[in-house]
Design brief:
single chain; alpha+beta; Jelly Rolls; 3 domains; 16 strands; 37% helix
Length: 299
């Protein structure tokens, strides 16, 4: 078996911030709290985990130290999966591949909403005097989040992503070739699949084809894109356009993930690393937005 069941008593620390992670967990019974600076004067509770939820997965996917402390808030039973047993776990439970991707996608969506809110508040704060009581309540959660990070949050390097750059999808049945200027998907369309670039380049645009068109980024091999649409089947937030002739893109549907893991497990690893990396980058951007918000509000 790839999992070990463990039980923790109320108040017991399950994982500790700063430790090197070599396993991740799924809550089977009970609830657990997630904290920054646990046990210190500036302790901040980030969220509560309930049965079915995962934690500690990013430390395994990217070999990073634990970013928070998780504490049992009742008698808690968890399933622990060691990093070395991850492939066995996915072989035994292929449905968990999409479940973990959805878990990371949910965290990305929630953090994106916080980041967008912080930026909007910052813009309002700079444009007018809004230090009244209601504004203080609105701003406080972002300032508390910032203060819980005692040291500067470093921008993640792409080193973990480079480990997967040997992946080639040319032998896949789901690779398509596009000419320059081909729209791969449009902003506002409901997404049901994701993509991996295997040749050429793909531009990601907001308001493509309008006077407000803005190029957000350009993706090169072996970048992933469109994963949030696949995970949540929600509207695309941007438009993807092939930037060169002979742009090769592999199409991945959620129902094909288990089979993809059987044939090319490194691609699943690459997608998970991509999601984890995006989450770390967004955390860095949110930290800086909260830092500026705190400094501006204190003036």
């Amino acid at each position: 078996m790839s999992t070990i069941e463990k039980t923790f008593a109320n108040g017991e620390v399950i994982i500790k911030e700063g430790d090197i992670g070599n396993s991740f967990f799924q809550i089977l019974e009970g609830n657990a709290g997630v904290y920054k600076n646990y046990g210190l004067d500036d302790q901040v509770k980030l969220t509560v985990l309930v049965p079915g939820q995962y934690f500690g997965e990013m430390a395994v996917i990217e070999s990073y130290p634990r970013s928070s402390t998780v504490v049992a808030e009742s008698d808690v039973k968890v399933a622990e999966v060691a990093a070395d047993d991850l492939n066995t776990y996915f072989t035994e439970k292929p449905d968990e591949i999409l479940a973990i991707m959805k878990h990371l996608g949910k965290r990305l969506k929630e953090l994106t909403a916080d980041y967008d809110e912080a930026n909007k508040i910052l813009a309002d704060l700079k444009s007018a005097d809004k230090k009244d009581d209601w504004f203080s309540v609105l701003i406080q959660k972002h300032i508390d989040w910032f203060k819980a990070r005692k040291i500067k949050v470093d921008k993640p390097s792409a080193e973990s992503l480079r480990e997967s750059e040997v992946v080639s999808g040319q032998d896949s049945d789901n690779v398509e070739s596009y000419k320059k200027g081909t729209i791969i998907f449009k902003q506002g369309e409901i997404g049901k699949c994701m993509y991996i670039v295997h040749g050429g380049s793909v531009g990601i645009y907001s308001n493509y084809g309008t006077a407000d068109q803005l190029k957000l980024t350009e993706l090169l091999p072996v970048a992933c894109f469109g994963e949030m649409g696949m995970i949540a089947e929600e509207a695309r937030s941007a438009t993807a356009v092939s930037e060169t002739d002979d742009t090769y893109v592999e199409i991945i549907n959620p129902e094909e993930l288990a089979e993809l893991f059987k044939t090319t497990p490194v691609k699943i690893d690459m997608i998970l690393r991509h999601l984890s990396y995006r989450l770390r980058c967004l955390t860095y951007d949110y930290f800086n937005a909260c830092k500026e918000l705190s400094e501006t509000y204190s003036k």
